[in-house]
Amino acid sequence: MASTSTQFVTSRRMGMYDPLHHINMWDDAFGCDISPNTGPSSITQVTDTRQTNKTEYNSQESLGPSVDNQEAKSMSDKLQRRLAQNREAARKSRLRKKAYVQQLETGRLKLAQLEQELERARQQRMYDGLLNTSNGVLSTNVNSGVVAFEMAYDLWVATQQKKDNELKEVLQSQVSELELRMFVDSGLNHYYELFQLKVNVAKADVFYLMNGLWRSPIERFFQWLGGPRPSELLYMLMPQLEPLTDAQLVSVSTLKHSCRQAEDALSIGMEKLQQTLSQGITIDITGVGSYNSQMTLAMERLEGIENFLNQADHLRQQVLQQMSRILTPHQAARGLIALGEYFQRLRALNSLWSARFREPIS
Amino acid sequence: MDKIETLTSENAIVVFSKSTCCLCYAVTILFKELGVEPLIHELDHDPEGWEIEKALVNQGCNSPPVPAVFIGGKLVGSTNEVMSLHLRGALIPLIRPYQSLA
């Protein structure tokens, strides 16, 4: 009789709602630490109830055949209780699993955020190394202006994409030229806002601006004085604006040429700044110059960098303004869309490039 | 101011500059590229330099006072103004009477 009773217990162990078996399977998949708070206790809880059930059953057994009916009744009671406990345990197990998965998800998001912050911090350290100043106070001042700019820039990019999409829709719909002109002006003003942001960050950290650290590496590859080269943008945009009248072609061509001349003048001026700066701080073997006076002069020259960067942005703004005068509203709208699309693609290319060696997540 | 008057009336294109100012250098490079030879007057090499600077500020050239560009005796402005004029195509007509054919 004892053997059949153990058989019966064993077969139930293999039944559908077997929480211990279920948890054991899960345990094997994720290792022993699932959710340390609830796991072991509930498992032991289940085990305990099983133990008590078993002992109860066994004690019942020893009473003999005279209590068969009671036995059967209490057996079904016990069965019901067993099944209910199994269901409960299974439910708890599912909840724990859900909580764990959610933890994993938030962990994943946090990881992505941290990676981004780390990248930013890395870039920050990069230019901090270029700027040969004493740390502490100066760098904290610098960082707050830079942090504010980066936040503003992220917002600017998101708003720019929205505006570009808006402009695309407006182009496709039947809208008056006056309205289109308003949309174009709004788009242009948004670019002017960016130039204003850059003026502010130039005061906070001129080398951050000079090295274009808020931009992706590929954007920096094409960089000229803290941003894209305006004449290059004109070259890129020209085919997008066709057909142009002869008069327009001449105007745009002249604009390109003048812009190029202005860029070259600024580039040469910047080179002179670099030369005089580096010559100015080298050791004077004649001993005429003094360390202090050399450093003071060098500091004055460094202040000149901000002016060059402001002039570069002024040039970019002038190019945009001139183009909006030369082009019809329709052409200008197309130009703005093409411009936005160009920067977006550069950034997308950068993401693709930096991800090319990453292992795919299985 | 007298000195400014004299210099700007006697010379077609005058750029008031400072030897430490590389933006001034950039402006003069632009003019040379356009075929004109401006007179560059370095304020830090002039004993009356700070007086001239004050006068320029009074005329509206501040932050920074240099470069201050005069064409045909009239104040054109600083780097901003020169660049804007050039991109609008309005600078070349201004200097055309003074361009050398070399």
TrEMBL record, chain B:
Q: Which GO terms describe its molecular function?
A: thioredoxin-disulfide reductase (NADPH) activity
Record-stated family: Belongs to the glutaredoxin family. CC-type subfamily.
Question: What main location does UniProt list?
Answer: cytoplasm
What Pfam family is a match, any one? Glutaredoxin
Q: What is this protein called?
A: Putative glutaredoxin-like, plant II, Thioredoxin-like fold protein
Family annotation (InterPro entries): GlrX-like_pln_2, Glutaredoxin, Glutaredoxin_subgr, Thioredoxin-like_sf
An example GO CC term for this entry is:
nucleus
Q: Enumerate the spans annotated as Glutaredoxin domain.
A: 13-76
- Membrane-spanning intervals of the chain: none
